[in-house]
Design goal:
The protein is α+β, with helices and mostly antiparallel strands. It folds into 2 domains: 3-157, Jelly Rolls; 163-267, Homeodomain-like (Arc Repressor Mutant, subunit A). Helix content is 42%, strand content 20%. Helix 1 (97-104) packs across helix 4 (139-157) and helix 5 (163-173) packs parallel to helix 8 (206-222).
C-alpha cells in the first residue's frame, strides 16, 4: 500500500455525528502520478493538510487544482478521483452528514458532490482553528483540541429534535436495509415530510442514502477474503446477484470482482 491511515474514535457525546478522526500519509513512495478512486461512504470529510504538499481534485473532471489547505469534501454519491504528485500528510475529521448540520448549522446540500475551502462554508473562525490543529504536532493533542471545539459548537447549534438525524442514524444502524415503514414507525413525522426535509438538507433522497449505507456494509464484509458475493447479496437483501452487481458498479464504477482484484486503486472508508 502507498497509504498509511490511523483512526481515532470520537467521544460518546459526538459518536452519533462524527465517524472518526484520522491521520494519514498518502503517496508514501512520492510517485509523481499517484491516484486513488475514493468510494462513497455517505460521510463528509474535513481535511487539514499538515504540510505545503496537497492533493489535486477536480470539480468538473477537466481541471485538476491543488486542494485548499483546509478542504471540505462534500457528500459524494459516486466514486471520485484524487491525485498526488508528492507525499501528502493530513489530519481529517469524518462527519456524518447530520453531524455537519448539527455541529455547524450548515446543510450538506450546499456542497453536494464537490469540494470547497472550509472558510467558504464553515467560516473564518473555524478556518483559524484548523490552522491551530495544523500547527499542533502530537496526534492525541490534535484530537483533544478538536473534540473540545466541536462539543462547544454542538451545544450551540444542535437541533432539539432532528427528524433527519434520527432517520440517518436508523439507516446506518440497519446497514441501509431499513424500509420506509420502519422509519416512520419510529419517527413521528409523515413519510412525505421526512422525504422532503431529507432531500432539502442533504441533497440526496432517503433511498440514495440507504444504498450508500448498504455499500458500506458490503465493503465491511469484503474485508474478509473468504466472503462469498452470492451470500453477501442475499444477506443485504438484493433482489438477485445481477441486481447486486449492477448497483455496486453504479456507485463504485466497477463490478465487485474487479474491485477485489484492483482494490489498491481504491480508497475505501467503510462506515
Amino acid at each position: 500500500m502507498n497509504i498509511s491511515i490511523s483512526e481515532f474514535k470520537p467521544s460518546s457525546g459526538l459518536q452519533s455525528y462524527i465517524q472518526a478522526y484520522w491521520i494519514a500519509e498518502f503517496n508514501l513512495r512520492a510517485n509523481a502520478n499517484f491516484s486513488q478512486s475514493v468510494v462513497p461512504s455517505g460521510c463528509i470529510e474535513l481535511i487539514i493538510h499538515q504540510t505545503d504538499e496537497h492533493c489535486f481534485l477536480s470539480k468538473n473532471d477537466n481541471n485538476w487544482d491543488k486542494s485548499p489547505a483546509f478542504t471540505l469534501l462534500g457528500l459524494y454519491p459516486k466514486s471520485y478521483d484524487v491525485k498526488f504528485s508528492k507525499k501528502v500528510k493530513t489530519f481529517g475529521i469524518r462527519f456524518y452528514p447530520d453531524g455537519i448540520r448539527n455541529i455547524f448549522g450548515v446543510p450538506p446540500s450546499e456542497f453536494l458532490a464537490t469540494y470547497e475551502a472550509s472558510i467558504d462554508v464553515l467560516g473564518r473562525d473555524f478556518n483559524d482553528f484548523c490552522a491551530r490543529i495544523r500547527d499542533t504536532e502530537v496526534a492525541e493533542r490534535q484530537v483533544q483540541l478538536v473534540e473540545n471545539y466541536l462539543l462547544k459548537l454542538f451545544s450551540r447549534n444542535s437541533k432539539t429534535y432532528d427528524y433527519t438525524h434520527l432517520a440517518m442514524k436508523l439507516i446506518r444502524q440497519s446497514n441501509g436495509i431499513a424500509n420506509y415503514q420502519e422509519l416512520t414507525g419510529q419517527i413521528p413525522i409523515s413519510l412525505r415530510q421526512l422525504q422532503r426535509e431529507f432531500k432539502n438538507q442533504y441533497g440526496l433522497t432517503i433511498k440514495d442514502y440507504m444504498r450508500i449505507s448498504r455499500l458500506n456494509a458490503i465493503h465491511q464484509y469484503m474485508q474478509n477474503p473468504n466472503t462469498c458475493l452470492t451470500e453477501l447479496a442475499y444477506q443485504l437483501e438484493f433482489t438477485d446477484q445481477s441486481h447486486f452487481i449492477r448497483e455496486y458498479k453504479n456507485y463504485v464504477g466497477v463490478p465487485p470482482k474487479k474491485f477485489i482484484k484492483e482494490k489498491d486503486k481504491f480508497l475505501v472508508n467503510a462506515v
